Amino acid sequence: MKVIQVDDYNDLGKKAAEIIIQYIKGHANAVLGLATGSTPKTTYKELIRDHNENGTSYRHIRTVNLDEYVGLDQNDPNSYHYFMKKEFFDFVDIPENNIHIPNGMAENIYDECKDYDRLIEGLGGVDLQLLGIGRNGHIGFNEPGTSFDTMTHIVDLTMDTRKANARFFNGLDEVPTQAITMGIKNILMSKSILLLASGRQKAEAMAHLLNEKEVTSAFPASALHHHQNVTVIADKEALSLVYSLERRA
Ligand code: F6R
Question: What are all long-range contacts of 201-205, with beta carbons under 8 Å and residues at least 24 apart?
């Protein structure tokens, strides 16, 4: 696991975008695994800036998002579909057919999970997966206790995660109780992984990931120690409780 420390949230976006752009330059039809949440926002901003200034094209890029809330329509401002349009897709030249996000309104959400796995397989798998990390170590919506063998599945969101996400809604009651998420096995099947973390509120999670070698389902992000090509990009605050970066880099 390689660790890159940056100064702050803006620099996090610049560094992550630099790595993604570099990858796209060599792989014009790459499959990118994308995340929502606060953390990747500066990354998307930088990708859009680069698209406008340098013309990096997404015409042949395919994307698969990690997750979506169950029960939210694509046009609901709190859906991850909507987030991705407003934060990224509306501002680059990616064709709509190349964008894939689990459908939280599917008639049969269990079939939707199986279909999503088939879809990812059909695309040839994810080349570069972008991840954030929850304060409890979740990746995607894989909460503590999730088996590392899981493919795309339905999860009941923990109160901690619902509270953390309540800031986007008009209160906790409106935060959905379930989500569709790629599983930990899907994530580990990606060819490369970029994990981003910013701010003091992620310091304990980063310390858990980088100070302790223990791989346990109680801390889902620890599964990433099983992957050969993970780059962590985190700012100083997020790394403030990590003992020795050199040892881990
Ligand atoms: C989002 C996702 C989540 C977030 C995590 C961190 O698609 O899969 O795992 O990455 O909850 O969220 P933020 O970035 O808002 O702190």
Answer: 201/135, 202/133, 202/135, 202/234, 202/237, 202/238, 203/237, 203/238, 203/239, 203/240, 203/241, 204/135, 204/241, 205/133, 205/134, 205/135, 205/136, 205/137
pLDDT tens string 22-43: 999 999 999 999 999 999 999 9
246 has pLDDT over 60: no
Residue (of 139, 153, 154) closest to 224 by Cα position: 139
Residue burial 81-116, b: 16+ Cβ < 10 Å; e: rest: bbbbbebbbebbebeeebbbbbbbbbeebeebbeeb
pLDDT of residue 248: 45
CA distances to 76, 118, 166, 204, 211 from 248, in Å:
41, 35, 34, 16, 8
Contact assessment for residue 233 and residue 15, using Cβ atoms and an 8 Å cutoff: yes
Whether the Cβ atoms of residue 198 and residue 113 lie closer than 8 Å to each other: no
Look up the pTM and report it. 0.95
**Does 37 sit in the ligand 1 pocket, CB within 6 Å?**
yes
| CB neighbours of residue 10 within 10 Å | 14
Distance 35 CA to ligand 1 centre (A): 7
60 CA → ligand 1 middle, Å? 26
Q: Is the pLDDT of residue 126 over 80?
A: yes
**Residue ID of nearest Cα to ligand 1 atom 10:** 132
Element (H, E) at 94: none
